[in-house]
Amino acid sequence: MAAQSAASATEAAGTEGRNPRRWLILAVICVAQLMVVLDGTVMNLALPSAQEDLGFTNSDRQWVVTAYLLAFGSLLLFCGRLVDLIGRKETFLIGLVGFAGASAVGGAATNFGMLAASRACQGIFAALLAPAALALLVTTFTDPKERGKAFGAFSAVAASGGGLGLIIGGSLTSSLSWRWCMYINLVFVVIAVVGSALLMARQPKTPGARLDVPGVVMVSSGMFCLVYGFSNASTHRWGTPSTWGFLIAGAVLLVVFALWQTRAAHPLLPPRIVLDRNRGGAYLTMLIVGAAMYGIFLFVIYYMQSTLGYSAIRSGVALLPMVALTAVAANVGNIKLMPRFGPKPLVTAGLLLGSAGMVWLTGIDVDSGYASALLGPLMIAGGGMGLIFASAFRTGTSGVAPYDAGIASASIQTGQQIGGAIGLALLNTVATSSTTDYIEGHAQGRPTLPLIHVATVHGYTTAFWWCAGIFAAGAVICGSLMRRGPLQAPAAAPVGKPSEPETART
User: Fold this and answer.
1) Which of 73, 170, 179, 347 is 20 to 30 A from 38, alpha carbon to alpha carbon?
2) Which whole-number Å values give the CA distances from 473 to 37, 285, 390, in the listed order?
3) Total domains present in the chain
4) How far is 483 from 342, CA to CA, in rounded Å?
C-alpha cells in the first residue's frame, strides 16, 4: 500500500508539473525546426535560376549553400552553450528574428555578395535557433510517454525536412521565383515568434555558469576548418593546399579542444555529455547518417533531373513517399518501439534499412522507371531514416540536466553537419572519379552523349555503393557502442553548479 501510494503521488506530481500549453509549444518548436532544416536544401534547386538572375559564376554557386553550412556547423557548440547561459526562450526568439532578417535580405539580394552574406547570417542564427528548439522540447516534456510523442513529431520534421526543402524549393522556383525560397522563411518566423511569445514562459538561466572562451575559439575554428576543407574538396581536389591544409588544421584544433575540456573550469562541452555510451552512440550515428544521406538527396535528384529529365517540381514530388514514410517511422519508433526496446535495435535496423535501400538503388540505368527502380528503395531508406532520427534525437539528450540541454542538443546537430560536409566531399569525389574512369575506359575517340549518360549513371551507382557501405559500417559500430534495453526515465536535475563532476555511465 505504501509503495502504491508513493507511485500515485509521483504520478500526480508529474501531472501537476506539466505545462498545459506544451502541445502548442511543440507545434511552435516544430515550425522553427522545419525552417532550419529546409534551408539546408531549399536553395539547391533554385541555384540555376538565382545564378541566371544575379549573374554569378559556377565556381561562386557552391557558396550559396556552403556559406550556410559553414556558419551553421562551426558555431553550433558555441551557440548551444549560449542557450544554457542566456536562456532557452530568449535565444529561441533571437534566432527567429535574426533568421527572418537574413532571409529578407537574401530574398532582396541584388548581387552574389549580398546573397552569400545573407546565407552566412542565416547559418549563424540557425546555429542559435536549432539547439534552443531541441532544448525547449527536452525541458518542456518530462513525462516519458508524452516525451516519446513529442520526439516523434520533432524527429519526423528533422528527418523529412531535407526532402521537403527540395520539394518546396522546386515548387517555389517553378511557380514564383527563386527569391521566394528565402521569403518563405518569413511566414515560418511570424508563426513561431507569435507562438513562442504567447505560449512560452521565461526559461531559467544556468546559475553560476561561465563561458569557456578558449574552448569556443578552438572548437569554432576547428569546425570551420573541417567544414571548409571538405567543402573545398567537393568542388576542387583533395590534394590542393586549401583542402588538406584546412583539414589538418581543423583536426589539430579539435584534438586540442578535447584535451582542454578535461581541464577547463567551465568546459564548453563537458566530458560527461559525450562519454555516456548511448549519447556518444547517438552523436556518432548522426555523423554517419549525415554523410550517407547525401547519396539520397544529392545523387537521386541529379539522376531524376539530368538523366530521366524530371522537372524540379516532379523530382520533388517523387520524394514524397520517402518523406511520408520517414515521418511515420519516426513517430512509430518514438512512441511504440523506443519505450520497449531502447535505441540500440532502432539505430541498427535503421542503418541497415538505409544500406539496403542504397544497394537497391545501384540497379538504376539510363532509362529506369520510377515505380520499378526508385520508389521501393526510397521508401526503404525513408523508413530507416525515421527510425534513426527517432532514436538519435531522444537518446542524445537523455539523462542530461536542464543546464546541459542546450549543449547536448547542439552536439547532435553538430554531428549531422560535419557528417554532411564529409559526405558531400567524399561522394562527389567518388562519383566524379568513377564517371571519368568509365569514359576513359569505354570511349573510342570523342565521347558520345549516350556514353556520357551511361558513365554518369555509373558514377551515381558507385556513390550508392559507398553510401551502402557507410550505412552498414554505422550499423556495426553504433549498434555495438549503444547499451541494450530502454532508456532510463529522466531523473531529477542534479543539485549544484554545472561545473561539478558527473560520472558518465559506460
Assistant:
1) 347
2) 26, 11, 20
3) 3
4) 8
Q: Which amino acid is at 127?
A: A
Q: Name the pLDDT band for 295 (thresholds 50, 70, 90).
A: low
Full-prediction pTM beyond 0.85? no
First to last CA, the chain: 36
Residue 136 sits at φ, ψ, to 5 deg, of -60, -40
Does residue 5 surpass a pLDDT of 50? no
Q: In this structure, are residues 386 and 329 in contact, taking their beta carbons and an 8 Å threshold?
A: yes
* Residues, the chain: 506
Evaluate if residue 1 carries a pLDDT over 50.
no
Query: Is pLDDT at 43 greater than 90 in this prediction?
Result: no
**Of 5-19, 352-366, 409-423, which has the strongest mean pLDDT?**
352-366
Widest Cα–Cα separation across the chain: 89
CA 381 to chain centre: 16
Q: Residue 264 pLDDT > 80, yes or no?
A: yes
Question: How far are the Cα atoms of 89, 120, 295, 396, 404 from residue 86, in angstroms, in the given order?
Answer: 9, 23, 38, 22, 12
Q: Are 225 and 250 in contact (CB under 8 A)?
A: yes
Q: Specify whether 145 is located in the same domain as 168.
A: yes
Q: Do 258 and 152 fall into the same domain?
A: no
- φ and ψ of 13, to 5 deg: -65, -40
DSSP 311: -
Give which of 299, 353, 310 is closest to 461, Cα–Cα. Answer: 299
Q: At how many degrees (to 10) do helices 405-442 and 277-292 cross?
A: 30
Are 260 and 356 part of one and the same domain?
no
Q: How far is Cα 370 from Cα 308, in angstroms, rounded to an integer?
A: 9
CA 130 to centroid of chain Cα atoms: 10
Tell whether the model's pLDDT for residue 113 goes beyond 80. Answer: yes
Within 31-99, strands assigned E span none
Q: Is residue 496 included in any domain, yes or no?
A: no
Task: Tell me the average pLDDT across 101-126.
Answer: 91
The domain that contains 104 carries what CATH number?
A: 1.20.1250.20
Place of cell 531529477: 492
Backbone angles phi, psi at 54, to 5 degrees: -95, -10
What pLDDT score was predicted for residue 17? 52
d(CA 245, CA 128): 28
Same domain, 125 and 234: no
Rounded to whole angstroms, the Cα distance separating 193 from 89 reads: 10
Q: Which residues contact 457 (CB under 8 A, 6 or more apart)?
A: 303, 307, 364, 365, 366
- Tell which of 169, 202, 235 closes a domain: 202
Q: Which domain holds residue 191?
A: 21-202
pLDDT digits (tens, 9 = 90+) for 7-27: 333 334 344 456 778 888 989
For 144, the grid coordinates are 516519458
